[in-house]
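Q: What would this complex look like in 3D?
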Amino acid sequence: MSAGRIVRSRVARAREFLLRKLLSDLGYSLLARETTPSAIVRYLDQYVVGQDEAKKILAVAVYSHYRKIATFANDQGAIVKSNVLLVGPSGTGKTLLCDTLSRMLGVPFVTADATSLAQTKYVNEEIEAALLRLLDRADGNVEKAQHGIIFIDEIDKLKATGGESRAISGESVQHALLKIMEGSSVKLRDDRYLDTSNILFICGGAFVGLENIMSRTHGFGFIATSSDDNRNILDRLNKRVKPTDLFEFGLIPEFTGRLPVVATLHSLTRAMLVSIMSVPKNSIYRQYIEIFRGEGVELSIEQRVFEQIAEIAIEYKTGARSLRGIFEELITPILYVVPDRPEICKVEIHSLFEDARFFRRK
Ligand SMILES: Nc1ncnc2c1ncn2[C@@H]1O[C@H](COP(=O)(O)OP(=O)(O)O)[C@@H](O)[C@H]1O
Ligand SMILES: [Mg+2]
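A: Here is my prediction, written as structure tokens for the whole assembly.
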């Protein structure tokens, strides 16, 4: 090899190295280096009670998505995506998890509601509107928007059923969503194009009835075993939501195929409901403590009250959703009088079924 050639090949290699580094930096800059899966979980823990398994799965999915982009950006074309499906009863934190996640990650993030997609005749326009919002969150930067996250809530409402009475069948919405999940170049109103190949999709839904399907179709349990380890593996396999379960539920196979990562959220226990009201940074109790403090009043609610509220919430069967309503019913009459009575310095609530105690300034 001549000297000239050696130099040229070195230059070419150096250029290639720089290009790779540039693209890889792009991937890393999308998600800060310190944003490790455990850091994501620690952040989520501040706002979302329980659901540890779903938090981990979600954190790893997001992390690996951006690392894949960082590592394979130079290979041209799309990465193999691992979109996530969150399955769990109503009011257990699916939407909250995604909202919290979006606040933490510095990437563009939008939520689209599958129910409203199913109620419009103009599905593609709605999808386009969601992409435009994503672009907006990315400050108009197409490159950044193309690496954002789209959360599609209430995805189970798109189940294919016979005799649709809605404006459009759930199945056709699934097909429309499938296109952008697979990755396509979508022309926006402003004549720009947005390539969805590297956008991460998170879908969420309650999937009422899925458990029945799973209990019917999961047949791993027949292997008799005495070992606890094997038992655990079997339990894990049995608990896993399979694509065929989702298919039976009413999602088309192509669609379930695009959601390889499934995280299950569980019903909240009474203790968790109690925690939700008082522990998270922005919990309802803490919010009202601040409101009362603004009036110069100390608010004190006994643990027992939260337990009583949790008990009622369990009866309502809407997860944590009813907590706020019950809590506010309790607090409204008190907050109605307190601002007019500057002599009050403290309010104590001992039971949901007893009047609050007011204390006067001395
Ligand atoms: N695991 C949880 N931790 C803290 N709050 C929760 C949790 N689950 C539900 N909540 C509360 O209930 C409300 C409804 O929860 P959401 O996330 O919308 O439920 P869904 O699972 O139906 O999407 C939230 O705004 C939040 O206040
Ligand atoms: Mg929700």
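A: To summarize the key features: Residues 270-360 form a domain with the Helicase, Ruva Protein; domain 3 fold (CATH 1.10.8.60). The longest strand covers residues 200-205.
Q: Very helpful, thank you.
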